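Internal QA ticket QA-208
Title: Verify multi-chain structure generation after dependency bump
Assignee: T.L.

Test input:
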Amino acid sequence: MLDSGAFVTPRETTRQDPEPAGSADAAHRKPDMLHPMLNTAVKAARRAGAIINRASQNLDVLTVRSKSPNDFVSEVDRDAEAAIIDVIRKTYPDHAILAEESGSSGQGEYEWVIDPLDGTTNFLHGMPHYAVSIALRQKGVITHGVIYDPVRNELFTASRGAGAFLNDRRIRVSRRTQMADSLIGTGFPFRELSDFDGYLAMLKAVMPKCAGIRRAGAASLDLAYVAAGRFDAFWEFGLAPWDIAAGALMVAESGGLIGDASGDPGYMDSGAVIAGNPKVFGQLLTTLAPHIPARYRQQRTKDTPAPPAAE
Ligand code: IPD
Ligand code: CA
Ligand code: CA
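Actual output:
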């Protein structure tokens, strides 16, 4: 994790301290209030989480393969994904699936978007920060999302129009209004290092203007943390749809904003994401704008290959 930015003592700070995340309007939700499709996603995420937790006790025996430089996959990713797909298929055999390790299958109105283990590098190093991310799209619109952190047993859920929750508590984005007081999450380029200079220019612009930057290593959790008010904002470019889908709904349902490199809605296609509470989102976008490499402003289409992934 990278920690940067000015050290501000409580006495010096100008921040209007918001209530702790989740306490602001602490509506509770009973488990039986879950939409059946969200319920299936939760069941699948918990099953994958159990596989991941078990495997974390024995990291030494894992077989790890490199998909591309600095991009690793283990049998845990694959086993977790198979368990998720098994749960979904039992209930919804006709739904399409887009999953990181096994690709896409099926067609139709409903599509599940799955990252079975987001933060594989953390997991393989015994860093306890990773998650299972599952979203459902209906006719291309994300309608349900689950992000499950099996280490902390934190279950983030959202359904379109019904709010976002951490376990059974309603969550909201933070109330900070100034980027200078904000904690901002990000992801560094790691697979394709030709993006490095562009990324460093963005980092250089943001660092002196905020209270701190973190590179925690799991994009889905970064977005869930924006939704829960732990991060005031987040940006990362070069993400895949399964990194973004569930978290994007969570940010929106907790009162936040999420956009692509121009602040527009094309993030699922471009893989470029900027998210935050409404105030800090705008300030981060303005700060990044002059430094965003041109490639990330372009929409990804079937004819233009994805930009290299960033960590
Ligand atoms: C990665 C993590 C990481 C992000 C990368 C992703 P994976 O997912 O979300 O934080 O920076 O771009 O690929 O490979 O661990 O599922
Ligand atoms: Ca991922
Ligand atoms: Ca993954």
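Spot checks passed. The domain at 31-170 is CATH 3.30.540.10 (Fructose-1,6-Bisphosphatase; Chain A, domain 1).
Status: verified.
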